[in-house]
Amino acid sequence: xxxxxxxxxxxxxxxxxxxxxxxxxxxxxxxxxxxxxxxxxxxxxxxxxxxxxxxxxxxxxxxxxxxxxxxxxxxxxxxxxxxxxxxxxxxxxxxxxxxxxxxxxxxxxxxxxxxxxxxxxxxxxxxxxxxxxxxxxxxxxxxxxxxxxxxxxxxxxxxxxxxxxxxxxxxxxxxxxxxxxxxxxxxxxxxxxxxxxxxxxxxxxxxxxxxxxxxxxxxxxxxxxxxxxxxxxxxxxxxxxxxxxxxxxxxxxxxxxxxxxxxxxxxxxxxxxxxxxxxxxxxxxxxxxxxxxxxxxxxxxxxxxxxxxxxxxxxxxxxxxxxxxxxxxxxxxxxxxxxxxxxxxxxxxxxxxxxxxxxxxxxxxxxxxxxxxxxxxxxxxxxxxxxxxxxxxxxxxxxxxxxxxxxxxxxxxxxxxxxxxxxxxxxxxxxxxxxxxxxxxxxxxxxxxxxxxxxxxxxxxxxxxxxxxxxxxxxxxxxxxxxxxxxxxxxxxxxxxxxxxxxxxxxxxxxxxxxxxxxxxxxxxxxxxxxxxxxxxxxxxxxxxxxxxxxxxxxx
Length: 556
Prior knowledge:
The chain starts with a helix and ends with a helix. The model has no long low-confidence stretch (mean pLDDT 80). The longest helix has 37 residues, at 519-555. The strands form 2 sheets. It has a two-stranded antiparallel ribbon with strand order 1-4. The chain has 3 domains: 1-36 and 126-323, Growth Hormone, Chain: A (Up-down Bundle), CATH 1.20.1250.20; 47-51 and 60-93 and 101-113, no CATH class; 331-535, Growth Hormone, Chain: A (Up-down Bundle), CATH 1.20.1250. By secondary structure, it is mainly alpha-helical. The protein is elongated and about 95 Å long. It is built from 24 helices and 4 strands. α7 (164-181) runs antiparallel to α10 (249-257), α17 (335-359) runs antiparallel to α23 and α18 (369-378) crosses α21 (422-450).
């Protein structure tokens, strides 16, 4: 008997599972607001040089004439954002007058920003333009660095301290650091707060998914995992709406951070994973949690009959060889775990680098940033519906591999769309992003099912580290466009295709398969499967040889 049989006896996918999953996935949805927040809080509006303070002509009533006399125009007739004339050129107001040879200089007195769409952003507040424009990307890289550190830290802590404690702390840390970000007065302090916010991303996502999976019977795991993807999609749509209604960056930052204090308060009610409690010898608390689940699911009598001995009898064979402590080396120590870990390293990195390469800079598409954000969120819905169907009826491996390969081909195909067809390029990029988002969510569930409970959080944390490395690499890959415009698309597309092939070739199917509890149990399962395949292959060889032997006897 397996632990999932015990959950089925206590109501299966009942009221507790529905409420528990909803309370955990709601914060996961709002995390999307934070990871894509700089698309709005760090938007770079049109700008040009401020005029020198000693030029009294700046008070002229004809501001357009003053602008034409002081700021050079580019080939599209738009004021240059980083250059101005050393002296006003009133002669340029006359027709047929050329600006060639006129002396220019950098902006020495600041910039004038177009505030028609964004009343304020960090770019305007700290002048992150021209020579300082790379600081905008640096801030996002620092956030992703925090996500990377959080993946390594919280993945390890969750296997030692449980799933609940790091999750509760992550809610509090995000609420406090997010609110503090809205009040900081310097760019350096902003980056520090963003780093602390980034750390909580992995702590919330990884622990929420593990708690959902470990409290969910086998038949409900697929839908629960896909619901995580829909919550992330909902968060992107919420961000588009909230950002459209709340334009000042400080108020927007506070608006998406304050709800996490509410999540922190109700998270104390959430019970710890009984699987983890049993693994670490806390059987009495595990029994108490299971009884609460039984009451909520309307199986009070079944819950009252539970004892420590009864619960242990369900999982005694699985936990017989469990280790009391684990290290990162356990992800590479045994053959089956090692193959899974190496393959998932490739998959998570490749998926992440392509996903963030497409989704982190919406202004490059030349359309309304709010429309593009909404489109990138909406496209995930049909993609995830397809992913849900295929994961249930086809399997995890085929679903993840197909979405990754399809996304890679779409990204590569986008290279051949002319630059002037911005709408078509945006739609095609959105389709690719939808496939990557679906594969991302599927691989979250797939990873949780591939690793045994003993090292599940450590394995997911390590896999998430590789995803964060991909997020850090995405801006660097984008800069390859300065060498050749096709290099970013080729890189993003090729890595997705490679990851899809790795999934298809090296990972095993987990659809309708009970979760493995220990490393030893997983190794036994792999050996049994290999023995079964060898027996089937030998049987086929014998069956192929027998007709030949019979024919030879008849000839003789």
